[in-house]
Design brief:
By secondary structure, the chain is of the alpha+beta class. Helices cover 49% and strands 17% of the residues. Helix 9 crosses helix 11 and helix 10 crosses helix 11. About 2% of the residues have low confidence. This is AraC family transcriptional regulator.
């Protein structure tokens, strides 16, 4: 079953998948200027999900947030419920300060993030499934706002559970964890053009050394490594899933020249571009 809300005037799109055997993240539909983000709820048994060619085990009674540029295939998609939305429907960046920790769910340091639900939370999520389904069958002036309100509820509930399950959030003050979260969100927005730690530090009103020290204290990889890994991941996605040339990818990712990109890719992936593309 697929039900959707499509607001022609603003290009806002919200889609609910339930028992959909064809549900996957290959060639995700895009509307307006932005692709679609996804919440996947597994109310049944554990199953495998392959995200960007890496296999993971999705536990039973769990939620998985997926960002718009990830490619994913589930072992049993018909056993899942998924909610998808584009930026025009609900902008993560704009709602970050209002909801709190939206970046933590979708752009956290540790990803993918499988958020486990207890019995009560699972019952509430099942109830929300029914409410979403009913609301998607209505066609009136309140439908879009009601769907946004329901999505916001899912985000807040999921965030609360995720923070309880994240050891770092239990051990360290919110101020430090918010710094990590804001860095992650900035990185997702700017990584194609900004490759230096000093840019992100300045945007966060910190020195590069202070920013690196916070990451070290929380036992996270340093900002420079996270920037590098994000660029490398995007390069691999483009090489694996698109027909773009290495030259096109190099300039899209902010490299001065294709040769510079080629050296970067070989150094940090352990493979040259042509070999990786032919795997």
């Amino acid at each position: 079953m697929i039900r959707e809300y499509d607001e022609k005037a603003t290009s806002a799109l919200f889609v609910m998948h339930r028992n959909n055997k064809l549900f996957c993240g290959k060639g995700l539909r895009t509307v307006g200027s932005n692709p679609i983000n996804t919440f996947v709820y597994n109310s049944g048994a554990a199953q495998q999900v392959v995200i960007d060619e890496i296999a993971y085990n999705m536990p039973p009674l769990s939620i998985l947030p997926l960002v718009s540029n990830q490619h994913f295939v589930f072992q049993r998609p018909e056993a899942l419920t998924a909610w998808q939305f584009n930026r025009e429907f609900y902008c993560i960046v704009d709602h970050d300060a209002e909801v709190g920790c939206v970046g933590f769910l979708f752009y956290g340091i540790r990803h993918p993030m499988f958020i486990k639900l207890d019995k009560q939370a699972a019952e509430e999520m099942t109830h929300l499934e029914k409410v979403f389904s009913s609301e998607l069958q209505l066609k009136d002036n309140f439908q879009g706002e009601m769907l946004r309100t329901l999505l916001k509820r899912v985000i807040i509930k999921t965030t609360r559970m995720a923070k309880l399950q994240c050891e770092s959030y239990r051990q360290f003050p919110d101020e430090r964890m918010d710094l990590i979260r804001k860095f992650s969100l900035l990185l997702e927005i700017h990584f194609k053009l900004e490759h230096e730690v000093r840019f992100y530090a300045a945007a966060l009103n910190k020195s590069p050394k202070t920013l690196s020290n916070v990451f070290a204290l929380l036992k996270h990889p340093p900002p420079s490594v996270l920037i590098r890994n994000r660029i490398l991941l995007e390069a691999k996605r483009n090489l694996h899933y698109t027909e773009k040339s290495a030259k096109e990818i190099a300039y899209e990712l902010g490299f001065e020249s294709p040769a510079h990109f080629s050296r970067f890719f070989k150094l940090y992936s352990g493979s040259n571009i042509s070999t990786f593309r032919n795997l």
